[in-house]
Design brief:
The structure holds 2 protein chains of 2 kinds.
Chain A lengths: L21 H15 L7 E5 L14 E4 L5 H11 L4 E7 H7 L1 H10 L4 E6 L2 E2 L5 E2 L23 H8 L3 E6 L3 H13 L4 E6 L11 H5 L2 E3 L10 H8 L6 E8 L6 H4 L16 H8 L4
Parallel strand pairs in A: 1-2, 1-3, 3-4, 4-8, 7-8, 9-10
Antiparallel strand pairs in A: 5-6, 7-10
Helix pairs in contact in A: 1-6, 3-4, 4-5
Chain B lengths: L5 E10 L3 H14 L3 E7 L6 E11 L12 E4 L2 H7 L8 E5 L13 E5 L1 H4 L10 H12 L4 H12 L4 H16 L16 E5 H11 L2 E6 L6 H14 L2 E4 L3 H14 L2 E6 L1 H17 L3 E7 L16 H6 L8 E3 L4 H18 L2 E7 H5 L1 E5 L48 E3 L17 H21 L4 E4 L5 E6 L3 H13 L4 E6 L1 E3 L4 H7 L3 E6 L5 H10 L5 E4 L8 H9 L3
Parallel strand pairs in B: 1-4, 4-5, 5-6, 8-9, 8-10, 10-11, 11-13, 12-13, 17-18, 17-20, 20-21
Antiparallel strand pairs in B: 1-3, 2-3, 2-14, 7-14, 12-19, 16-18
Helix pairs in contact in B: 1-5, 4-6, 5-6, 7-8, 7-12, 9-10, 15-18
The chains are: A alpha/beta, B alpha/beta.
């Protein structure tokens, strides 16, 4: 592939993240993916929640909505439903998406609405200075688990597959090129795509470090994984701790997306019928005669 | 004209008895006869059983509330007969199925009309549930209403496919109609007036659609649910995106996303759902995103009284969300106001880029009101979308530019050449956060001032309250929202008694227009009337204007005010 110019998506603003934060890798990967897709920044809306990673929209040239904690997905769906011409990307962290906002995740998955959702998963609450998160490993010591975490972590890949998402992948901020290719495919996929991005927190997570991941990650495509086989996907999704797969776990190309099924969104959402005619106004009122 | 010019009919039974369908048919019969009508359904939060009654008031003139005690009672079972029999007005009627309801110790001042389903119902309509139609037929005869219109309503409601069921219904109605020989003195005269029969909820939905609403999201919650139903039924035809969300938090955030993207967006709920929405409502104030939130209030707190009315959420609306941000609160007095004011809610939301809270309540939401057709005029709905830039050059665009009015022109996503982030964190004019690295006090103050300045202009856009009655009053009755109809009638009754009284009804609630206090100051005595415990509007009025209402009437038992009840309450202060 020809060299891509990511300048189109860069802004003159330094990210607020700690040096070495995994979110830099995601930023780079996302900008590369958008450049590869040759999208115009005006056609993109990036919606985030609250947390370190949710500052992302400020660092990319595109329209952005930096919403409330846990509410990136409903806000993003609102944008997509009225203007399906836009490429809508939701982004945030594991606390935002798998903790406070997990209810919305389940429903966005089953709705299969055409949005790409990127979760920068560092298995810790960073912005609030290091508490356990829904994906913290058992035994992890944090400010709120001084004796080691004794809650079991949520498995976002399994959750997304079982909730009906039609594109489920994991990327690693230490592999931005691999990540960019997966984001390209996720955005091209017509339906709800979850990307769980391993984005190490260099300040508060002393267990799940870059080094820890580098020793464990492997690429699903290298072992001949078939992402169209849900059983294989579920099998691979259960792997963690010893070996951690990255790549595309699951694709369901057969399920139409919400925006293709909804009769108004299909016709352009708010552009489907901009005006109600005078005759139609009378017709509406005559419902009550 | 001699004889009674209006009638109040009460149908009482259990959920599942078909009370609502009798109410529906009677309302249509009245409106198609050119008569005024108002119906109130006092139902319970059960699908079958419970104690349910519907009251419908029909008149030769327009009707503004459902009235007090009934002229005609139709009890559908023994217990409801016992519960309501004493409420029937002297000279009134009790129409009942004698197979089911046993009457002893008859009142001498009431006419009893027993009918037997077993004996009278035709073979195809013997099901006990059809007794409502038998008794309806008898009522129509007593009321001297045109039965051919009724037959037409029944046929239309079942459609071509339901011809058999329609005939069965008509036959059982005929059985009731033909077996009543009583001659009553009701003098309801067919008039050459065209009436719509509409609920407050439908009025809100229709007004919104005609005002260009392109997105409605909601989670089902009584009493707001029928707004969602109307939108779903009409979405495809009129190009409105409708979403039943997973919860109210999703519903409001979806609406905010849609508003940000450039659609006129609305969400609707009741108090409990509104509580869940509040953080997001504040965020719309911060990101300056237009959105309309309908809160149809019911008895609270918590799950409270799911199917009963109350005006208890005014302070919740005022205090919705942490922090301070510009907002508007509107509360229409009746379905006519709801129709126009919901359009104005969108105009305010977009002109000032704010959340607008639209307060209605169970009574207005689900009551059926006869509205003369020329009262709902779509050509009077004006759309003002505020400042939206379609072409912008270069990087000089500031989404949150400081202006005199506090309003910064919007650019909608998809517009080429400009990009910005709308953030729920505090931010500068360009949208860049000032909350993280360094909170610049001067910038924070500048942005707060900019947003809050909008309030000065919103209040100027608000019209004065509705003022009716004596122009030089000794007594003023003060109300807001759905109590309009009942206060209006009480004001008329008092004027007939020679009392110099007027009625001030506030619909544009917040920000508070100071002129309201001036209007009230002209009266010797102001009496407030609210369907809540703490007279919330009077507190707001005092807080904002210093005007202190001394005489307060409140009602918080779940049921709305009725005219004679309220008249008695008002007289305690005279």
């Amino acid at each position: 592939m020809a060299t891509v110019d990511i300048k189109k998506f860069q802004v003159n603003l330094n990210p607020t993240w700690c040096p070495g934060c995994g979110d830099y890798g995601l930023l780079r990967g996302l900008q590369t993916a958008l450049a590869k897709l040759d999208l115009d920044p005006s056609e993109i809306v990036i919606v985030s929640g609250i947390g370190c990673s949710s500052n992302l929209p400020h660092f990319i040239k595109a329209y952005g909505y930096h919403s409330l904690h846990g509410r990136a997905l409903p806000t993003a769906q609102g944008v997509k439903m009225v203007n399906p011409r836009l490429t809508v990307i939701a982004a945030g962290g594991d606390g935002d998406g798998y903790g406070i906002g997990v209810g919305h995740l389940v429903h966005a998955c089953r709705r299969n609405i055409d949005i790409t959702y990127i979760v920068m998963d560092n298995q810790i609450y960073g912005l609030t200075t290091g508490q356990t998160s829904p994906t913290s490993d058992v035994g992890s010591k944090t400010k709120t688990s001084p004796d080691g975490n004794y809650e079991y972590p949520l498995n976002p890949i399994l959750l997304a597959i079982s909730s009906g998402a039609t594109f489920v992948a994991r990327t690693f901020s230490g592999e931005p090129e691999h990540m960019a290719d997966i984001i390209v495919k996720a955005i091209q996929h017509k339906g709800f795509a979850l990307i769980d991005d391993i984005s190490p927190c260099v300040t508060y997570n002393k267990k799940n470090t870059y080094q820890w991941f580098k020793e464990r990650v492997y690429k699903l495509e290298d072992i001949g994984h078939d992402p169209y086989d849900i059983n294989q996907a579920i099998q691979r999704a259960t792997e963690w701790e010893d070996k951690i797969p990255i790549g595309i776990f699951y694709i369901n190309p057969d399920k139409p997306s919400y925006d293709q099924l909804d009769p108004v969104i299909r016709e352009g959402g708010m552009f489907a019928k901009p005006e109600i005619t005078e005759d139609e106004k009378k017709e509406i009122l005559n419902q009550f005669l | 004209m001699s004889g009674k010019q209006e009638v109040i009919i009460r149908i009482a039974g259990s959920a599942g008895d078909g009370i609502a369908s009798v109410g529906d048919v009677l309302s249509k019969l009245a409106s198609r006869s050119g008569l005024g009508v108002c119906a109130y359904n006092s139902y319970q939060s059960v699908i079958r059983g419970g104690f349910v009654w519907l009251q419908i008031r029909i008149s030769n003139n327009k009707v503004f509330n459902h009235g007090d005690n009934p002229d005609i009672l139709i009890p559908l079972n023994q217990s409801e007969y016992e519960r309501h029999k004493d409420s029937v007005l002297p000279g009134g009627y009790i129409i009942y199925n004698e197979d089911k309801v046993k009457v002893s110790n008859k009142r001498e001042d009431v006419n009893y009309i027993p009918l037997s389903m077993r004996a009278l119902a035709p073979q195809e309509a013997k099901q006990p549930v059809m007794q409502n139609m038998l008794l309806l037929g008898a009522a129509v005869k007593i009321l001297n209403l045109d039965k051919s219109i009724l037959d037409d309503i029944i046929r239309k409601s079942f459609g071509k496919k339901g011809e058999e069921i329609a005939n069965a219904n008509i036959n059982v109605i005929n059985a009731g109609y033909n077996n009543v020989s009583t001659v009553s003195d009701f003098n309801l005269v067919k008039q050459d007036k065209k009436y719509y029969v509409i609920t407050g909820n439908y009025s809100v939905a229709v007004g919104a659609a005609l005002a260009g609403c392109k997105f409605y999201s909601a989670y089902p919650m009584t009493p707001a649910t029928s707004i969602l139903h109307w939108f779903v039924a009409n979405a495809k035809k009129y190009g409105i995106v409708v979403k039943q969300a997973e919860d109210e938090i999703a519903a409001i955030n979806m609406a905010i996303g849609a508003g940000f993207a450039g659609a006129r967006a609305m969400t609707g709920t009741s108090g409990g759902g509104f509580s869940l929405m509040t953080e997001a409502i504040g965020s719309a104030g911060m990101t300056e995103t237009p959105v309309v939130i309908v809160n149809s209030m019911r008895g609270g707190p918590s799950t409270g009284l799911p199917t009963k009315t109350e005006q208890g959420d005014l302070f919740q609306a005022l205090g919705a969300s942490q922090g301070e941000y510009p907002k508007a609160i509107l509360a229409p007095k009746d379905p006519v106001s709801a129709f126009y004011m919901i359009a104005e809610a969108f105009n305010l939301a977009e002109r000032y880029q704010i959340p607008v809270i639209f307060l209605i309540d169970f009574l207005l939401s689900n009551g059926y009101y006869g509205i003369q057709s020329d009262e709902l005029d779509p050509s009077k709905i004006k759309i003002d979308r505020g400042e939206i830039l379609e072409h912008v050059n270069g990087d000089g665009y500031l989404r949150y530019k400081v202006t005199e009015t506090g309003v910064s022109p919007r650019v909608l996503p998809g517009t080429k050449g400009v990009y910005y982030v709308a953030a729920t964190d505090e931010h500068d004019e360009d949208g860049v956060l000032i909350s993280d690295i360094y909170t610049d006090e001067a910038k924070r103050k500048k942005m707060m001032d900019k947003r809050m300045r909008k309030m000065n202009y919103i209040v100027k856009d608000f019209p004065l309250p509705v003022v009716e009655g004596d122009s030089n009053p000794d007594v003023t009755l003060l109300g807001w929202g759905s109590t309009y109809g009942v206060i209006r009638e009480v004001r008329e009754l008092l004027q007939k008694e020679g009392i110099k009284v007027n009625h001030v009804h506030v619909e544009y609630i917040y920000p508070v227009k100071k002129e309201i206090a001036d209007i009230l100051s002209k009266s010797k005595k102001v009496i407030s009337i609210e369907n809540n415990y703490t007279s919330q509007y009077t507190k707001l009025l005092r807080m904002e204007t210093g005007f202190d209402v001394q005489s307060k009437i409140v009602k918080y038992d779940g049921e709305p005010f009725t005219p004679l009840y309220l008249l008695k309450e008002v007289k305690r202060y005279l």
